[in-house]
Amino acid sequence: MTTTDSTTLDAPAAPAAATPDAPARTYPVLRWLVAATFTVILNETVMVNAIPRLMAQFDVGARAAQWLSTAFMLTMAVVIPVTGWFLQRVTTRQAFTVAMSVFGVGTLVCALAPTFPVLVGGRVVQAAGTAVMMPLLMTTLMTVVDERDRGRVMGNVTLAISVAPALGPALSGVVLAAAGWRWLFGLVLPVVVLVGAAGLRRLTDVGEVRASRVDWASVVLSALGFGALVYGLSRVGEEHPGAVPAWGWALGGVLVVAGFVLRQRALTRRSEPLLDLRALTHRTYAVSLAMQSLAFLTMLGAMILLPLYLQDLRGLSPLQTGLLVAPGGVAMGLLGPVVGRVLDRVGARPLVVPGSLGVLASLAALSRLAEGTPYVLLLAVQVLLMVSLAALFTPAFTLGLGALPAHLYAHGSSLLGAAQQVSAAVGTALTVTVLSWRSAQLAAGGAGEAAAYVGGVRAAFTVAAILAVGVVGLALLLPNRLPSTAALESGAGAPSAH
Which residues 6+ apart lie within 8 Å of 467 measured at CB? Predict the structure, then answer.
């Protein structure tokens, strides 16, 4: 696995004084966590191009086929809130073993699935393993990496995390052009085994294990609340006569999540909560969480809209579409280390403010798409969007989690993961709803099929651009740098915005 800078992540780490002229330290424990995270995140997007083949093979409709994505998101939303408690009870090696073993079993089930329900079940098992890896990586990073190195190391981590979803559609297009859909899992499985085995041989435990009891009522509330919310949002735009409407599921989910929040507050006062929401009392973390969630929502919207536009209207193949959008994700990943070094040198604001403005400008440009927009222009705007997001995400991750005291790292990582899953569901639902509504409205007014579709795409991108205004506002509220860890641990964990 060569997705990270080995000089940054793979040499022995040794404690050293954090002096301005001290050489950059390296953290070997992170290399294998990054490699594993790259592998599981890559798997999230490889199924995009395979859905038409799966519909034909298993004789299922488009709505049923979407369960391959919906079930994945639902499982992530249900499992992630529990990972904060889980990561505090087990060692790094134990958590890594559980995550990779569960993901590997799910991959094997998918590769051998004789029926569509079994395939969906395999995706659920995969998602359960994936849900543990990202919080594990972020919690370990915040535990072992010195403050002065966090931007640089987070930049290298971003390289792996950003490139993976961008390569997924292109990789699946190449595999599907040469072999069957089962090879999408068959090729991943040996990589999972190799990374898992190598990681266990070299991975060391970091942090301390804390024995704590789990509140099963919180687990049930979390599963029902986040599950119903994501499920309802994923069904927006569908009609099932006699069934509970999408808004009913979403509203029910919101109410149960509210009950979950109230229970966590009560548990905080008398024992230990499943998900410690005191992380949200740290202002920088709360602002960072809100900005990342909103930016993630707009990013998901663009990732859905562009392939729809390119394939349904412009007639590109899945492979061509994947190759067209891949440079943006690759650029985002390659800039990760650069952004990290700039963050360590000059602080966050020179990155997040221009980055947020770049997101707004690129989405505003995409809201002016036409039936014959040149592909070169589309590529340039999409690259601008992904580069701008790179300038946002690395500083936001670093500032947000860095604003928390050490005992809240696991909970902060879990909360961020849950927020991203909800943002993904909202972005998908909002994008599809606006696209369908505006297209139908224009078609009813006499517009041609292509013109109506373009109008729907433009309307959806316009909504995304409006939301990006909020990203700019939140970016302006982030501080340039954080106070020292000592100040955070003593309770001064809510730095001002200036």
Answer: 294, 297, 298
- Of 88, 123, 86, the C-alpha closest to 105 is 123
Q: And the tokens for 214? A: 């789990």
Question: In this structure, which long-range contacts are made by residues 113-116, counting pairs with CB atoms below 8 Å and at least 24 apart in sequence?
Answer: 115/58, 116/54, 116/58, 116/60, 116/64
Q: Which residue has the tokens 């987070």?
A: 154
Ramachandran sector of residue 215 (left: φ over 0; alpha: ψ -120 to 50; beta: rest): beta
Tokens of 34: 């990054």
SS3 state at 374: coil
Residues 6+ apart with CB under 8 A from 215: 263, 267, 271, 273, 274
Taking residue 436's Cβ as centre, other Cβ atoms within 10 Å add up to 14
Cβ atoms within 10 Å of 7's Cβ, excluding its own: 10
At position 345, the amino acid (one-letter code) is: R
* pLDDT tens figures, 401-452: 888 888 888 788 888 878 887 787 778 778 878 888 888 889 988 888 889 9
Report how far residue 6's alpha carbon sits from residue 497's, in angstroms, rounded to the nearest whole number: 35
